[in-house]
């Protein structure tokens, strides 16, 4: 162990943990004001339930020795996770760093189901999902599992985090259905500056996400850090050009989305491609996500904040482009298709397909099992009132001196007329 590596990984862990509140702001700004607290809470609650699930069981399933498919229970409840060395850092710090990944991955799903899932059901769902879906996929890729043996590359989570969350988001939308007013009225962002703030904080946190995935203070961390800086820059430029030529305008929401797409795309490749490769990857990855977002808006799929277009498609693009642009002279490991190793692209495709299949089937199984014992979706009346009041007894914005802090049943007795808490259309 070295003090420099420990210091860098402590900072990186804090940066990645910051990404979950940042995601809350990114998502929160994109929804209507009557759902902003609920939306942000869906990120914040992951800090508790997913984090504890990781410590108690998820970490052991991900990094226990076990088999090529699943870790064993050797680290259950952090048994044996101590201050002894795990590479360049203490084992305890490695576990904490990986735990921040579990938290943000589960929280990503929330953006697809804004405004319609019961908060208690969501909390149960992401707890189970983090243990039963996220942890096994981590084992496959980073815990000595079969995808690692195959030779698939995923530096910081293209398949493990983004393809996984993107597919789970689509499945959850399919199970829950669309919002009651989807397709019948404009569902406008209520606070775009929140979204820009969230995007900026996510970019900051991503330096720990990717740079910290080197698990040491070394040249691999430098490469990942630099690539995390430049890839989204290229995505921003290409996204702005696409926006300009398609609509004649460049939107703030589009720019914020471009930042996230660029960060998602470089994640699996951050420590494997050159800086010029990162710029190329960021620019290329803009187009699939951009047109996936445009196409989704014309369909009946109510992926509220386009989680699949940004994370699913962005993760797939990044994972496959890693197999094209990986360069041994920079990563010391292997080349990709562009540098004479076409097999690497095949390994990347297998990893993508495996993540899609496992996440899709597993997420569906969890939701169907939950539906047998508890309701998943809020009622139409609750949706109309807004989930801030009906799920939390609070409002983000009030005209009086403070938030409503009493139970919804007291605010709206069963025999009373229910007032609309929604803002006038066009001013959400």
Characterization of the model:
This protein is 64% helix and 1% strand. With 428 residues, it is mainly α. The protein has a two-stranded antiparallel sheet with strand order 1-2.
* CATH class (first level) name: Mainly Alpha
Strand content: under 5%
Q: Nearest-angstrom radius of gyration? A: 21 Å
The CATH architecture is Orthogonal Bundle
* Count of helical stretches: 16
Q: Please provide the ordered H/E string of secondary-structure elements.
A: HHEEHHHHHHHHHHHHHH
Helix content: 55-70%
Question: What are the key terms here?
Answer:
single chain; mainly alpha; Ammonium transporter fold; two-stranded antiparallel sheet; 2 strands; globular
In short:
This protein has 16 helices and 2 strands. With 428 residues, it is mostly helical. Helix 3 (91-108) packs across helix 4 (119-142) and helix 8 packs across helix 10.
């Amino acid at each position: 162990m070295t003090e420099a590596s420990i210091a860098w990984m402590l900072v990186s862990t804090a940066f990645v943990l910051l990404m979950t509140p940042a995601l809350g702001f990114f998502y929160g700004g994109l929804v209507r004001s009557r759902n902003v607290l609920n939306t942000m809470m869906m990120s914040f609650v992951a800090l508790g339930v997913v984090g504890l699930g990781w410590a108690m069981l998820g970490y052991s399933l991900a990094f226990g020795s076990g088999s090529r498919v699943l870790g064993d229970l050797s680290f259950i409840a952090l048994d044996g996770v101590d201050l002894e060395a795990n590479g360049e850092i203490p084992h305890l710090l490695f576990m904490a760093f990986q735990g921040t990944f579990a938290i943000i991955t589960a929280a990503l799903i929330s953006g697809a189901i804004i405004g319609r899932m019961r908060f208690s059901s969501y909390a149960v769902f992401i707890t189970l999902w983090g243990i039963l879906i996220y942890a096994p996929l981590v084992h496959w890729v980073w815990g000595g599992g079969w995808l690692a043996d195959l030779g698939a590359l995923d530096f910081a989570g293209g398949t493990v985090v983004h393809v996984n969350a993107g597919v789970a988001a689509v499945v959850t939308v399919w199970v829950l259905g669309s919002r009651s007013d989807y397709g019948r009225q404009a569902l406008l962002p209520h606070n775009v500056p929140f979204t820009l703030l969230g995007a900026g904080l996510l970019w900051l946190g991503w330096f720990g996400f990717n740079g910290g995935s080197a698990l040491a203070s070394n040249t691999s961390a430098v490469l990942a850090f630099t690539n995390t800086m430049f890839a989204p820059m290229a995505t921003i430029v290409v996204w702005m050009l696409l926006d300009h030529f398609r609509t004649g305008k460049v939107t703030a929401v589009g720019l914020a989305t471009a930042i996230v797409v660029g960060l998602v795309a470089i994640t699996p490749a951050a420590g494997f491609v050159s800086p010029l490769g990162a710029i190329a990857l960021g620019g290329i990855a803009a187009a699939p996500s951009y047109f996936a977002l445009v196409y989704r808006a014309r369909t009946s799929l109510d992926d509220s904040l386009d989680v699949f277009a940004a994370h699913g498609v962005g993760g797939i693009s990044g994972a496959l482009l890693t197999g094209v642009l990986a360069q041994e002279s920079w990563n010391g490991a292997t080349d990709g298709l562009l540098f004479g190793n076409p097999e690497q692209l095949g390994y990347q495709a297998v990893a993508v397909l495996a993540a899609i299949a496992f996440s899709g089937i597993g997420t569906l199984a969890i939701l169907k099992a939950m539906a047998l014992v508890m309701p998943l979706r809020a009622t139409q009346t609750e949706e109309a009132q807004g989930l801030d009041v009906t799920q939390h007894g609070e409002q983000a914005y009030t005209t009086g001196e403070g938030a409503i802090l009493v139970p919804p049943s007291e605010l709206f007795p069963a025999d009373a007329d229910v007032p609309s808490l929604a803002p006038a259309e066009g001013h959400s």
